[in-house]
Amino acid sequence: MSTSSEGCAFPKKIGPSKQARNARNASLRRQLRNTIWLRDRGVSRASGRPVEPNHYSMHWRGEVCHIQSRGSCPARKMDPTNCILLSAAEHQLSDGRGGYRLKLTDPETGEPATDASKPILFTLYNSAGKVVWSRTS
């Protein structure tokens, strides 16, 4: 515990409880998910197939995917322009779990995509590095 020069303890900084912070964060995450689902109209941006929030199959279950990962860009974690709707299978292929085989790029510059409000070129590669399919949305 920190003390002042007179030997008295500094007052503790009191903020919202952990339970209150968790409730607020859950509410913000729910708002973000709802915004993305409404913007993308329940359709995967990569394949163009309709997806459902709680489907048992990963090919038909929709998930909100961060274009720039939450770890590498925490400031954009709750930014709707950093999120898109993908099926769970496509989401897995777009990150480390699937070997980054689904690439998201800007169709005009060829650079990695950074803005969900602009068109994105989705390219799926097989394990040998050959293009399986490509789609812009």
List the topology elements.
Layout (H helix, E strand, L loop, with lengths): L17 H22 L22 E5 L16 E5 H7 L7 E4 L15 E5 L5 E6 L1
Antiparallel strand pairs: 1-2, 3-4, 4-5
Structural category is alpha+beta
Q: What sequence of helices (H) and strands (E) makes up the elements?
A: HEEHEEE
The gross shape turns out to be elongated
Largest sheet strand order: 3-4-5
- What is the beta-strand fraction? 15-25%
- The N- to C-terminal Cα distance equals 55 Å
Number of strands: 5
Q: Approximately how much helix is present in the residues? A: 10-25%
Oligomer: single chain
Low-confidence stretches: none
The number of helical elements comes to: 2
Q: What does this entry look like structurally?
A:
- With 137 residues, the chain is of the alpha+beta class.
- Helix content is 21%, strand content 18%.
- It contains two helices and five strands.
- A three-stranded antiparallel beta sheet has the order 3-4-5.
- The longest helix has 22 residues.
- The mean pLDDT is 90.
Compact description:
The protein is of the alpha+beta class and 137 residues long. 21% of the residues lie in helices and 18% in strands.
Essential attributes:
2 helices, two-stranded antiparallel sheet, three-stranded antiparallel beta sheet, elongated
